[in-house]
Amino acid sequence: MKMWFMSKTKYFVILSSLIIVAGLVVGVTFGGLNLGIDFTGGNLLTIDIGHDYDQQVIKDALSANGVDPATAQIVAAENGKQAIIRMQLSDNTNSSTARDAIVASIQQTYPEATAAQMESVGGVTSKEIVANAFLSVAIAAAAMLVYIWIRFALYSGIAGVLALVHDVLIMTAFMSIMRAQINSSYIAACLTIVGYSINDTIVVFDRIRENSRILSVKGIPRKEIADISIRETLPRTINTAATTLITILALYIFGVESIKEFALPIIVGLVSGTYSSIFIATP
Fold first, then answer.
1. Which residues pair with 42 in a beta bridge?
2. Which of the ends of the chain has fewer CB neighbours closer than 10 A, N or C?
3. How far apart are CA 119 and CA 266, in angstroms?
4. Is 219 left (phi over 0), alpha (psi -120 to 50) or beta?
């Protein structure tokens, strides 16, 4: 029986490498990742409008006062009657002056709008967020390594963790290529995909273990057993990924901006996690 999956391993590794390198090149070209205020520091302005509002009005107000709306985050709060704006002001801009100017621009459309509060996210806080983000991913990977080691074998644990690292790198590469903003939502998406991907990988590993008990006594090579196991679990993998992907795509298409920031890396991670379980972890 021809081992289609296992015989194509080098091509899959090359494909993943090309995507990661492309993300690295784009990142270097544009001076790094497009980090959000959570990581770089900035200002947090809460505006109480008092009723439902159009986010485009706020974006226009930001643009009119020298703030790029593409780099700002606008989140609705208090039943959609407050706007929380995360933004970065230039070094020579006074935050109080910028706040008053933005609120004045919004008041042209919504006269009752008032600034509820203005906060600053400092560099020290952002560094702590970055450190905690990396620490959370590292702890999750280490715990999964131990679990798979106990459940299967050490090499299986190493393969599973390497596949998780692959998924995070692919997600980061796509965010770099698309110049999408990296913020706390991205870290949440990474942890979500880490849990999703390892579950898919364990399903394949479990089928390999079961088939090894039956087929290895017949002299079938381990590579062929792995290929057979992939084919047996493939319908389940595709069905699970497809149904999840449809839901996340709906969130991305119809959701608000804050939801889209979470859904975009999840979409990339779902595809990468399914791909790595079959083509990276198993080989």
1. 121
2. N
3. 30
4. left
The residues, ordered by sequence, that sit 6+ positions from 90 with a Cβ below 8 Å of its Cβ are: 66
Q: How many residues comprise the chain? A: 283
The distance from CA 155 to its chain's CA centroid, rounded to whole angstroms, is 27
Q: Which of 278, 265, 138, 140 is nearest to 208 (CA)?
A: 278
What 3-state DSSP class applies to 33? coil
Amino acid at 95: S
Given pLDDT bands bounded at 50, 70 and 90, which one contains residue 1? low
Q: In the beta sheet, which residues pair with residue 84?
A: 46, 75
Per-residue exposure over 30-58, b if at least 16 CB sit within 10 Å of its own CB, e if not: eeebbbbbbbbbbbbbbbbbeeebeeebb
Question: Residue 183: helix, strand or coil by DSSP?
Answer: coil
**Taking Cα atoms as reference points, which of 126, 106, 125, 129 lies closest to residue 116?**
106
Residue pointed to by tokens 């459309």:
109
pTM (2 decimals)?
0.78
- Tell me, what amino acid is at 116? A
Token pair for 94: 């006074």
Residue ranges of the alpha helices (H) in the chain?
4-7, 9-29, 37-40, 55-64, 95-107, 123-151, 154-178, 184-215, 222-254, 257-276
Give the pLDDT confidence of 80-135 residue by residue, as tens digits: 778 878 777 766 667 778 888 888 888 888 888 887 777 776 655 566 767 787 78
